[in-house]
Amino acid sequence: MKASGMVSHRAARVEGTAPRPINIGNQEPERPKAKFRCWCCGRKQEFTGETPVDAVMKARKLGWEHTIGFDIETCERCVKLGKKPDAKKAMEIGVNA
Questions:
Q1: In terms of pLDDT, which residue wins out, 85 or 4?
Q2: The pTM is what?
Q3: DSSP code, position 71
Q4: How far, CA to CA in Å, does 76 sit from each of 24, 26, 41, 67, 68?
Q5: 44-48/72-74 β-pairing
Q6: pLDDT, tens digit, 9 for 90 and up, residues 37-69
Q7: Which of helix, strand or coil describes residue 60?
């Protein structure tokens, strides 16, 4: 069994830091990004992280919420105002487009 298979079956554990991208020349390596757009107010925000999941987790820590049934994002301002997901409005502003 390969090492990746052993990790997925919990027969082995991986420790340490994530591998870093190779820096070629003087260019800074591009970091993974997650772009969010609120279905209610249309606000856009971009998050960066070590991995795509890390970028999404940063958004969640700042208050952005994901509604699975509608597959839409709600910003922290609209969450505080108690806005509930509205699929019709989300389609009007083109969140899923």
A1: 85
A2: 0.61
A3: T
A4: 38, 37, 11, 13, 17
A5: unpaired
A6: 988 888 999 999 888 889 999 999 999 998 877
A7: helix
